[in-house]
Amino acid sequence: MQGAVGVVLIALALGLAIRLTLLYLLPGSGFGPDLSSFRYWANDLATNGLSGFYQRDFFHDYTPGYLYVLWLVGTIGKTLGGIGDLIKIPPVLADVGIAYLVWSMLREIGVRERLAILGALVVMLNPIFWFDNVI
Predict the structure, then answer these.
(1) Closest by alpha carbon to 23, among 121, 98, 90?
(2) CA–CA gap between residue 117 and residue 113 (Å, rounded)
(3) Separation between Cα atoms, residue 112 and residue 70, nearest integer Å
(4) Count of beta carbons in the 10 Å neighbourhood of residue 9
(5) How many CA atoms lie within 13 A of 63 on its CB side?
(6) 21/35 Cα distance (integer angstroms)
(7) This prediction's pTM
């Protein structure tokens, strides 16, 4: 079991490295209108706080849960001098969490270790996930 944990951690690290490399090689990529909205909201939340967000005079169409993430990204972005592609870090980290959950849940229901690791690899090495969150 301990060896399997090491293998899945390597798989998660590999997938994270791929995503961070893509972020570095393709700065500013993504669907512009969405990214602009996320950056604007993150900046607004870092400046004005969470209270009254939906009463402010601009477009917003996301549920309250994601506002906490955007507030954190905006606060960190203000400290670092700008939000930029930092807005893509939460989905990248979510991919790592999803891959871990896939591995963990497959192990919990009794799937062989190799197949559970393959499940995590499908999430981490699948270009669909890279495209959705990084590119």
Answers:
(1) 90
(2) 6
(3) 38
(4) 13
(5) 1
(6) 19
(7) 0.86
